[in-house]
Amino acid sequence: xxxxxxxxxxxxxxxxxxxxxxxxxxxxxxxxxxxxxxxxxxxxxxxxxxxxxxxxxxxxxxxxxxxxxxxxxxxxxxxxxxxxxxxxxxxxxxxxxxxxxxxxxxxxxxxxxxxxxxxxxxxxxxxxxxxxxxxxxxxxxxxxxxxxxxxxxxxxxxxxxxxxxxxxxxxxxxxxxxxxxxx
Length: 183
Known about the structure:
About 0% of the residues lie in helices and about 50% in strands. With about 180 residues, it is an all-beta fold.
């Protein structure tokens, strides 16, 4: 993952948004669907993070107050080969624990889909199915077991649908498009 660290090389000129925005094209070839993550308001190693999906206006990374989107040790990655996903994870002030999100573009529905999570480790895989989406986390998360992966389910697009632990290495990929989000 790209680790955004404080440094003069990332701060750039004094603009409304400090640093270089990280962008990720989530669209199909010839049909760009770009999301950008920007940061402002540097205080003691943290920034307030913002998101722009396509041509929409810039908004806070997380709903609520600006402090809900203030993060440190934030990692951002554009993942996937054919189908792309943007992964953002860090220590955000309002949460008190690692928090993040994964965004993909749904070409059929012509919209961005967002999957929020709060786990100790970043998700390793995203399984996109017709009726549900799965975020799969490696061992060492909140269940703290060496032989289980944690799965967060999302139904009807991006609505949370429950959490479960499995003993296998990862779920069966039949009926899903799988994006490897990183190690």
